[in-house]
User: What shape does this take?
Amino acid sequence: MELPKSFGRTPNSEEAFLYTLESEGLRVRITDFGARIVSLEARGRSGAFEHLVLGFEHVAEYVNAGGSFGAILGRSANRIAGGRFALNGHTFALSRNEGENTLHGGADGFSKRFWTVESAGSLALVLRLVSPDGDQGFPGELTARATFDLHGDALTLVLEATTTKPSPVNLSAHPYFNLGGVTALDALDHEVIIFAERFLPVDPKQIPTGELRNVANTPFDFRRPTQVGERIRAADPQLLIGKGYDHCFVLDEGDEGAMRMAAILRHPKNGHALEISTTQPALQFYTGNTLNGSVAGRGGAYRQSAGLAFEPEGFPNAPNQLNFPTSILRPGQVYHKAIRYRFRCDPA
Assistant: This one.
């Protein structure tokens, strides 16, 4: 195991560290700031490692860039409408950081915290975060763990949590993938498959309406390999709201708690491919619509669609949508979800 290296200091002079996991086929660097994937390299056709996620070289760049580059999302990924929810006769007011909405846990979500390293090796890293009762308005003290496990051509992320009071919990991860490498201008040429027959339409504030809409005959039909750019500029009301894809797909049903295939991403020119499987019921597909070139990382300035985020998760705004699967975790229960990223490089 390579000893953790300093990843620099935040503007508040807090020092971050960088941990490296490496197998024959993958090399992943993770920082304790936000439990985020800083870099992920897989071997290309030449046999050399090639960068496949967006990222920066110093922790201060992550702080200044904002957003959720590579980070763990929590206490509740995606949006909660109006920054509030009712539970057991009480209404809880949350931190609002997207107009009236709470996005990815609030203004000081898990992506902005320093996680404690519980164990570190050459193939696995375990990080822990304790979120106090009332944090960002959420009830209960929540203890979260993120376990990164590297095995051959796959990186598995296991997300766990326990709570002292009933609370919404919806953890996910937000790496931006661009399988074209650091010289690619955008990811619009990538082919995507999403294993979902339904998606969640949203209102103008990007809150799910409660409808589970069939993807057939819409720009949201990714059941067969489809280039991202093929329909992203279609005059579809849902694409206009999100300024591209920023929608949750209801994954095809599988056995409870079992891994199911969620998506396949492929770069047709260089052969890099990524298979994403998960135990989560849904997948947010986001085409980096708010990236505007104001920040630069590996490869240059990040503009719209510079990378693609696939966020396995529970249903957005579930605490306020009674017809959605519940996101409430209760004392004595263990939240346990897994995401697996498996890479390959197809021959020319």
